[in-house]
Amino acid sequence: MVKEGAYWLAWTQISGIGPVLLRRLQQHFGTLATAWNATKVQLAEVEGFGFQTLEKVVQQRSRLHPEQLFTKHQQENSHFWTPADADYPRLLLETPSPPPILYYRGEVELQENLGQKPMVGIVGTRQPSEYGIRWTRQISTALAKNGFTVVSGMAEGIDTESHIAAMKAGGRTIAVLGTGVDVIYPHKNRDLYKQILTAGLVVSEYPTKTPPDRTHFPRRNRIIAGLSRAILVMEAPLKSGALITATYANEFGRDVYALPGRLDDHPSQGCLKLLSQGATFILKELDELLTMLGAIPQIDGVEASTALEQLMPTLSPELQTVMNAFAAGGCDALPFDFIVQQTGMAAGSVSGALLELELMGLVSQLPGMRYQKS
């Protein structure tokens, strides 16, 4: 049986099919394997599938063999996740456009992927002032010492300072690249890259050997925002990739913080704009920032059980119907098709409900599109 991950890869090989359309396909059909075998008429029911896109699917799909494609891709790219994998980063998965393939190198920490260890993105200008560097180092150090993973883009300036400070403090860091995970850019950060591989991860939606391209970097900013619980913008002019990251963060429901600066400082203009639009001030009292970011002890098992009991009665009828399917199926992991059959709901509705229940911590996804109660 061909793995669901093979179909995520196969769909990316069809021109015109990007992360947003893939997410809609998955929600409409329940699995991308089902979508792969859907008729032209059935595909036309999915929002965003116009005549030209449908023609491309029909023409190109017949020439692709998902299982063979997946095997060959694994040989060239040994480490990657698809949304069908249980350890695909959960916070990123909840965004409207999660990368169909997320490549990685380094040391994986499962708690990060499951959303149990908080990750905070730090972004800013490539030409920071001494003021921006000083506060980036202080905040990155404080975050690392309090159990946060620092996420950034390994660019010059603020990104570089945040990665280095987090590692010096004994913490983990994740670099999101606009190249393949084996391509170092800028090249002057080759030593930093090697250090990150031993103290965290480098990730990218681009396959190995992908060189830098100016269109890649704005797109990778959505991954920084998607992985992170919050985004901190340290210094940024009005035209800055950091503001793109902040925009994504707002769209994804993440908190955005900005470091205030002087009105006549060019590197601070973007931060001042964000603050005028409702971003939270980064103030001198770092303890207050850490509290707002959630640096509090994890609740223990007894408290967690009580919390879940209190949460269950508040489920919507649709979510409750899906949870009832687990009671009917016993304590074993249930296949997706069984849940659809048991609930009598549309596959797309079940898929959306399961994702919401996952984010609430009530359901866990296992390999092979199987689910179990958490």
Summary of the model, kept short:
With 374 residues, the chain is of the alpha/beta class. It contains 19 helices and 12 strands. It starts with a helix and ends with a strand.
Sheet with the most strands: spatial strand order:
1-2-6-5-4-3-7-8-9
Rg value: 22 Å
Helix/strand/pairing class, anyone?
Answer: alpha/beta
Largest sheet: 9 strands, mixed
If you average the pLDDT, what whole number results?
Answer: 88
The total of beta strands comes to 12
What is the helix tally?
Answer: 19
Sequence stretches where pLDDT stays below 50 over 5 or more residues: 296-313
* Helix residue percentage: 40-55%
Mass-distribution shape: globular
Binned strand content: 5-15%
How far the N terminus sits from the C terminus, by CA atoms, comes to 27 Å
Labels describing this entry:
374 residues; alpha/beta; nine-stranded mixed β-sheet; three-stranded antiparallel β-sheet; 19 helices; globular
Your description of this structure?
The protein is an alpha/beta fold and 374 residues long. It contains 19 helices and twelve strands. The strands form two sheets. The protein has a nine-stranded mixed β-sheet with strand order 1-2-6-5-4-3-7-8-9, with helices on both faces. The longest helix is centred in the middle third of the chain and has 16 residues, at 130-145. The radius of gyration is 22 Å and the shape is globular.
